[in-house]
Amino acid sequence: MKACKVAVIGGGLAGLYAARALHASGIDTLLVEARGRLGGRILTADRSGMPAEDGFDLGPSWYWPEMQPAMASLVGELGLRSFGQNSEGAVVFERMSREKPQRYLPAALDQQSMRLAGGTVAAIRALARELPTERILLDTKVTAMDLAADGVRLTVHARDGSAESLHAELVVAALPPRLLEATVTFTPPQDPATAARWRDTPTWMAPHAKFFAIYDKPFWRVNGLSGTAQSMVGPLVEIHDATTASGKAALFGFLGVGADQRAALGEEVLKQACLVQLARLFGPDALAPGATLLKDWAADSLTSTAADRSGGGHPIPGSPRWVSGPWEARLLLAGSETSETEPGYLAGAVIAAKRAVAEIRSKMDRE
User: Fold this and answer.
1) Across the chain, what does the average pLDDT equal?
2) How far is the C-alpha of 280 from the C-alpha of 203, rounded, in Å?
3) CA atoms within 13 A on the CB side of 79
4) Strand extents, DSSP E, 33-184
5) With 90 as the cut, is the pLDDT of residue 133 above it?
6) Which of 290, 267, 288 is nearest to 279 (CA)?
7) Are the C-beta atoms of residues 122 and 13 closer than 8 Å to each other?
8) Alpha-carbon torsion 227, 233, 235, 236, what sign?
9) pTM of the entire structure?
10) Which of helix, strand or coil describes residue 141?
């Protein structure tokens, strides 16, 4: 049986931040990730949809330095290069199908949304470099946690289905509370009110899908357009310029079609409808992309549960006490949704991870 002082479950931004900070403090830490890659909902892909060091963010892509100092601080600490979301040019608004889309010049933005050069995965890669590879278990899914007098016994399954046990004195669950409640069996069970809170907390991105159209050049900029559009017609309801810092041109949008309807229509029908819409908004050049990508997070079982398919709500900040009863001494939650500020966002992941690390350090100091 493998053993460690702290097991961090989930290799997204929160889990990696926590594991790196604990390791730097000399605390024996093991990071356990169900996917075959690190990042969780952070997924930067190339034009074929494969994970890449410089590509398009199929998950979160923005942060706002003035409103989210925790994320701005991390970007500076890791020495990452950032750039502003393109906002130069007109915004297109599509109100109804029988009207021609309208263009207007927006007022100056109060808060500049920023992106990372190379994609948001740049933060994941930088954090992972500071954690020994032997302290990271990929393709390893936690299915059960059993409370013991000296810690927690975790049942983990590898990709081939084989099961083994892992013992940890403390566990940091750095994944969405709803996903934790749906996929891990606890012995003894969590307090009913605690389990209900986990279950009722929406997972950000889980109901959503993002579509990308990748081009040889950002032709919309030449035509005086920013690449930003809003539509009440669809299928895309919000569209932005997704051109990378290295100059790979793309437009992306959030689909306003529900998860069940997306599944019924199928990927190719959706992609074609999106291209037709982009042509209405930005001109005929939009009909000839070099590649398209569609990431449906609702179809990703390592992000979304059945409860996420119908809801698009944002997690709401609440009490910092996410664990109660006998589990309170051994289990901490650190997914972005558990942050007291900016829950669901990249900044929320950093804040939640910092809180968990501080609690563990304090606990160990007392011991």
Assistant:
1) 95
2) 32
3) 2
4) 44-45, 56-57, 82-84, 90-94, 102-104, 114-116, 136-137, 140-148, 151-158, 163-173
5) yes
6) 288
7) no
8) positive
9) 0.95
10) strand
